[in-house]
Design goal:
With about 400 residues, the chain is mostly beta strands. It contains two helices and 28 strands. Helices cover about 5% and strands about 45% of the residues. A six-stranded antiparallel beta sheet has the order 7-8-9-10-13-14, with no helix packed on it.
């Protein structure tokens, strides 16, 4: 017990002495909602149907030999019960997974979870604030087991269909199996983005050519966007506009470095599509919010925003930074609260192995903020491209 107390005090001291991230937009204020030892190594975050925060707490991402934490990951239910703006109640909603990547509340109220090897959904049916029902959506059969190049990134489109990604899997052969019985195989082609019903039926590969498509989102016009990592030897990381059948240029079979002449990063090869914009290092999530796409840049210690600028059938984007921290600020995932504020998780330390640190921040608008600008309407180029590709159902939105 004395050792645990010393470690907790050390972690708390580290957080207290870390410089607080700076908000670079005067419309917003940033507050610390929770930190270690109450929440450690947090990644995915979402608000449930009751407006309560759920956060994935990872304990299986390269744990040290002497790691004293839980043996498996867990989903924490975090609440501010007295209304003072600080979390004061921490409970475990679900536990038992390994290498957990993403979490998202679906429009049906189920909680969707992505681990490295499977996508599933859970819910609490008896009101005790613990998940007691679980259904499988999709799962991998593969020899690949690196913690964060498997299944990842959850989002729903405006038709209620589930989107998720698969990383480059180190080029290993794989079979992706859905609850609806579909089997899709591959290996060496790089990462992919998939789409299926909320229950796992009608699984299809939507696009390919990614490194690790960690973050996926859908804007109010039903456009799909993604942020993905890149090999260290081939920056920048990318913000991409995802279209059905799109190839975004990366194939693992031509080498991990990304420098082979048959690999493309910005549409430079025939048949591949360009990025919307280069992002900061290690982008983990993308969020459509107040007319812009917000991105967590784990490697550049900041929250980025991208204002879309129409470019033919797609977009370019203008970057500005909303929040900038130091090397002890490592934002991972966003969750929009019922009151419209943004919560985001913070890994804190640059270390990949789990380390017992973690924070959750709240970014909220100050009073008198102007109304948010809308996302761009469909351009003539977009409309023509959707019609020619046979995916013009999006024009109904």
């Amino acid at each position: 017990m004395r050792i645990l107390a010393i470690l907790s005090a050390a972690f708390l001291t580290t957080s207290l002495h870390a410089a607080e991230p700076k908000v670079l937009d005067d419309l917003y204020k940033l507050t610390l909602f929770a930190s270690e030892p109450d929440i450690v190594t947090p990644v995915g975050a979402t608000f449930d149907a009751k407006g309560r925060l759920l956060v994935v707490e990872v304990h299986t991402h390269f744990p040290p030999k002497d790691y004293a934490g839980p043996k498996h990951d867990r989903i924490r239910l975090i609440e501010d019960t007295n209304g003072d703006g600080k979390a004061d109640r921490f409970r475990t909603f679900y536990e038992g997974t390994d290498k957990t990547m993403s979490i998202l509340t679906g429009p049906d109220g189920w909680i969707y979870v992505a681990t490295r090897m499977k996508i599933f959904r859970i819910r609490d049916t008896d009101g005790d604030d613990k998940a007691d029902e679980e259904q499988q959506i999709a799962w991998l059969e593969t020899e690949g087991d690196y913690p964060h190049n498997g299944l990842c990134g959850l989002s729903f489109d405006n038709e209620g269909r589930l989107l998720f990604g698969l990383g480059e899997n180190l080029g290993k052969d794989y079979v992706l199996i859905s609850a609806g019985g579909t089997k899709l195989s591959g290996g060496g082609e790089g990462g992919n983005i998939y789409r299926c019903s909320a229950a796992g039926k009608g699984l299809e590969k939507l696009a390919t050519g990614f490194w690790n498509p960690f973050g996926i989102c859908v804007d109010p016009q039903n456009r799909i966007f993604c942020v993905g990592n890149d090999p260290d030897s081939m920056p920048p990381c990318r913000l991409m506009h995802i279209v059905k059948g799109g190839d975004y240029g990366y194939q693992f079979r031509y080498g991990r470095s990304g420098r082979h002449p048959l690999q493309a990063w910005d549409g430079e090869l025939p048949g591949t599509l360009p990025m919307v914009a280069g992002t900061g290092e290690a982008p983990c999530a993308v969020l459509p919010y107040r007319g812009q796409l917000w991105v967590t840049s784990w490697g550049d210690y900041r929250i980025e925003r991208y204002t879309l600028e129409p470019r033919g059938a797609s977009f370019g984007a203008k970057l500005d930074v909303a929040v900038q921290g130091d090397e002890n600020f490592r934002p991972v995932d966003f969750a929009v609260a019922p009151d419209g504020s943004i919560f985001f998780t913070d890994w804190v330390d640059r270390s990949y192995p789990v380390h017992g640190k973690g924070r959750i921040w709240k970014l909220s608008l100050k009073g008198g903020a102007p109304q948010a600008p809308p996302f761009p309407s469909f351009t003539d180029g977009e409309k023509q491209a959707l019609i020619l590709s046979g995916t013009h159902e999006g024009l109904a939105h």
